[in-house]
Amino acid sequence: MPVYSAFPDIDIPSKDIATFLLEKADARLGNTVSDGNKEQPLAIDAATGDSICLTETKLMAYSIAGALADRGFSFQFDPASFQPENVAVVFSSANIRFIAINLGVLMAGGVYTAVDPHSEAEALAQRLLDVQAKVVFVSLDLVPRLMEAIQLAHLDIPSANVFLIQGSQEPFTSISMLKPQKPCVLPMLSAEHLASKVALITFSSGTTGKPKGIMLSHRSIVSMYAVFGSAVAYRDTFAKHRSMSEQHKVLSAFPLWHIYGFALLCYQSLYSGNCVVQLRGFELKSFLQAIEQYKVDRLVAAPSMLHVLFTKTTKPDSNHLAIKDDPMYKFDISSIQTMSCGGAHMPPFKLEQCSKHLNIPIVSAYGQSETLAVFTCGQMAKDSPSAAGVLLSNSVAKVVDADDQETSNYGELCVYGPSLMKGYLCRGKGPMTKDGFFRTGDYAQLTADGCLFLRGRIDEIIYTCNGRIIPVDIENELAKHPAIEDAAVIGLGSKGNQQPIALLVLSPAATIESLNDIEQWLEQQLGVSIACREINTIPKSPAGKVLRHQLLKEYLPSLENI
């Protein structure tokens, strides 16, 4: 039988995203004003100190929505289509105005998507073609690359449909110069239409190949926040009428074209009232400076960021961190209360080490872009610290074996819930079971009370002549060796006759005489014989996922004779 969340189901509001979020934010602002407190910022640019509050966000969003309506945006759409119309692309480095841009696009009936600002013109052109972009919001410095991409894509995007996020340049439109507009009156959509009306297209990390466009509906996003907001472990953060004067400051270095970073800045700030301190990327010194300067009390980080925090800093006293290569500077981190880690797997041993080093609790969660980032909450799995969390309200899951039969052992995790994506761009609903569960591709086990345990991806399992080897199991063990800074395990050869290889990044302080020492140690620990090879770095996605196909491509020639 499928496993249902142990938490009671909640009613999902039949509202579009903009209405849902602004009702929450307006109610909180009304309480703040009645209490005599000053309106607090929704977000702060960590580098410049610039901020944006709810009132400013709404005025900018109304102006953007009006401008898009003038360019043909509307709520008309084909519910059955997997190629949405009226797509607005954002091509810019991180900017706190993304909150207003996203709201404006949604208020106009459009679809929002963002592209990595480091993309070259060819990659950007392909993305513009994939989504059939109608308008583009761009930072001034990236205009030349955008123009080149539009030419390469042979798309008809007139200059009037190119909006500058900051600054001005003829013949483009600066959003700061848009005419003020009255508040938008949004159409009332049925629950069926809310479930099929695409609001956001985000792209998968491409760990196994070409990234896929993941289409998330208004109902998907509203459901996730309604469910997550009801979670017992987060009730203090998401209290309905908490004054903005009591807001938490959350530091994020996640890229805003990634679902985790985007949702944190553009949605959580409005829903929860937390102030997001946004960095334009992760750099250790800037990260620590922002904690100290803005008295940040909550951190969100990918495993790769945690890894740097642990390996590149020292702790001279209980309240400070110092950078190993620059010990002259100490940064006060005493304001931090908790940290959330997500986006990729992190060995439990390393997670525990980081928590002790920083002296703060680290909460993990599980989710995919297809499930809108979060499907479980680790903080609720108090009796199972090694678990990826427990199912949130309104969620159902099951695990199936290779014959598609449900099992209580490890197998493929399949999930069902209101936050699931509509489907893949131009590809349909994606891999589904006959009874409508989404196949995640994750190798997992579920307990009867909804506690989830993960062991990586099914397509990463190595099949040797002696049986199966799970790369995550080996990587978790390698994380315990003091000479190893990072590790990834891949399989060479054809299925059934693969040979596992551990690719290692050694610590600068490593004192081992040869890799044979690690091979012997690993065989003693796990009883398996695995060849080890040293490499300089392990390629990972921005969220910290190991890019195994890239590892194979880069290192296969040098490993063929092993």
UniProtKB/TrEMBL annotation:
Keyword Ligase: yes
Domain AMP-dependent synthetase/ligase: 83-425
Stored Gene3D superfamilies: 3.30.300.30, N-terminal domain of ligase-like
Molecular-function GO terms, alphabetical: CoA-ligase activity
Superkingdom of the organism of origin: Eukaryota
PROSITE patterns cross-referenced by the UniProt entry: AMP_BINDING
A Pfam family per the record: AMP-binding_C
The keyword Ligase appears for this protein: yes
Alphabetic keyword roster: Ligase
Stretches assigned to the AMP-binding enzyme C-terminal domain: 474-545
Protein family per UniProt: Belongs to the ATP-dependent AMP-binding enzyme family.
UniProt name for this protein: Uncharacterized protein
Organism: Coemansia brasiliensis
